Amino acid sequence: MKSRIFNMTLLLIGVSSVIYAQKVISQKDAINLAWTQNQNLKIIGLEVENQKQLLGTAKELPKTSFDLQYGRTQVATMNDYTLSFSQQFSHPKYYKLVADVLNKNLELVKKNENIRKNELSFLIKNIYSKNAYWINLERFLNEQNTVLSSIVKATLI
User: What is the mean pLDDT of residues 37-65?
Assistant: First the structure.
C-alpha cells in the first residue's frame, strides 16, 4: 500500500512539474507568438480577407434577367409565348463610388488590425518591463539582505 501511495505521489509530482514548467522566451518571440495566437487578431485578419474579396465586386455588372411566358398572353383565343431579356446598368459614377467605399473599408480594417497589434505589443512590453523591475528589485533586496546579515553577524561576534 505504501509503495502505491509513493508511486501516486511521484506521478503527481511529475505531472505538476510538467504543468508548471516554464520556458523563457524573448520579448520579440512573445510578441510574435501573441500575434499568431490572439483570437481577436485572427478575426480581424479574416475581416481583412473579407474586405479584399468584396473589393473585387465593386465593378461587377448586374445579372441578366430572363423571362419566358407561355399561354394566352397576347391573344385570348390561342396560346403564344413571350420571351424577354433585360439587364439594368447604373451610372458609371455609382461603380466608382462603390469601389471607393470598399477601398476605405479595407483601409479601415487594416488600420484596426495595426492598432490591435500595437496594443498587444505594448501590453507584452509592459509585462516584460514590470518583470525586469521585479527581478532587479529581488536581486537588490537579496544583496541588501546579505550585507545586513553580515553586519548583524559582525555585531554579534
Answer: 88
